[in-house]
Amino acid sequence: MVYKAVMALFSCVLVVGCSSNQQIINKIQLVQTAGYDKVGDRSLCSVITSNYTEKGKVSSQLLLTSSDSSFDMIPRLNTKTSKTIQYGQMGMVIFSKAYAEMGIGPVISGFCRDPKIASRIQMGVTGMEASKLMAVANKAQESLYLMRMVEQNIQSGNLPRLNFKHILFNYYGEGRDIFLPYFTVESGSVKIDGLALFKHDKFVTMVSIREAFLLKLLTDSSRNGNLLMPMKGDKDNSTIHDYVLMKSIASKVHYHYNTSAPEPVVDIALKVRVMVKDIPSWLKFNTKEEMDDFEKQLGKYLEKEVQDFIALCQSKKVDPIGLGDFVRSRTRSWNEKDFYETYPQLRTHVTVQLSVEQSGVGEL
């Protein structure tokens, strides 16, 4: 009897709790995407919120407010709605390039200290005003549309693995720099156009979605990602350029710091398994030798692409790969300031071992 009484009481508590939560959810607006712009000396904050009007129905709303600081965003937004603003389910933050050039460190540090901010939160940069990008995204009436775009492109596209934990690791860790998705608008729709690269907390440059795949190979065990490779035409028409689209099935990267050479060099060995499609009609794989030659050609092309990407990062003095962190792990008296003074001259040597698992025409 006691057991039944306890269970009955527990059930009542559950029912009351569910009813109470239902009332609460109808009285709040959940911030799920936020944007930061710099307009003169003031910060412009924009948010996309979810409104739960009735069971099973959710709408999204774009709200904007300006302030001398981004820290009082929520109190100011609360003055513009009849429902209490809550941000515990925020999943995406967009910075305008102008805002990111001034530094996103204060926002990252503030989020790091806030227990309401979840580790799954994503961040991104746009070349336009963040509020305008969010206005375009809000047409989908899905408050987490931008976050889901990022997650989808990490899982099945060219973006390297990212979330707030990775951002904090790259921001606070020595010998590495932040990188974030870079958004644009094309034909009235939001598009992930590449990656924004940072030095410390300041935006430096952006790279294409193609180069994002190269960074994915250098930082992850990549199971997805695509690269379009130009190929010279057949012997009868050497001026024609055809293309082969290769998709990564799996990859592994291994780093070695070679100090026995006259100048220290970072050896980077990539093993990549790919599928290829839309092969030019003149390209034949009738023999093992022909396939071996094709794999070597793809591998050499990928080697050059990766080496050029590393050289680009060195020229901009950004380190999204974390080469400084790697050298630090292999050096007793490593100093971050000294390392990055000579970082543009750091020697790297890339080798790619590539194997084609499947070729022909098919859906990638």
Number of helices: 11
Number of strands: 13
H/E element sequence: HEEEHEEHHEHHHEEEHEEEHHHE
Give helix % range.
25-40%
Count structural domains. 2
Radius of gyration: 25 Å
End-to-end span in angstroms?
62 Å
Shape: globular
| Main structural class | alpha/beta
The proportion of residues in beta strands is 25-35%
On the 0-100 scale, what is the average pLDDT? 86
Largest sheet: 9 strands, mixed
- Low-confidence region ranges: 1-23
Walk me through what this model shows.
With 364 residues, the protein is of the alpha/beta class. The chain folds into 2 domains: 1-212, no CATH class; 221-364, 2-Layer Sandwich (GMP Synthetase, Chain A, domain 3). It is built from 11 helices and 13 strands. The protein has helices spanning 2-25, 73-78, 97-102, 105-113, 130-137, 145-156, 164-172, 209-219, 288-316, 323-329, 336-342; strands at residues 28-39, 42-54, 57-67, 84-86, 92-96, 122-126, 179-186, 189-199, 202-208, 226-232, 241-258, 265-277, 347-358. The strands form 2 sheets. Strands 1, 2, 3, 4, 5, 6, 7, 8 and 9 form a 9-stranded mixed β-sheet that branches. The protein has a 4-stranded mixed β-sheet with strand order 10-11-12-13, sandwiched between helices. It is globular, with a radius of gyration of 25 Å.
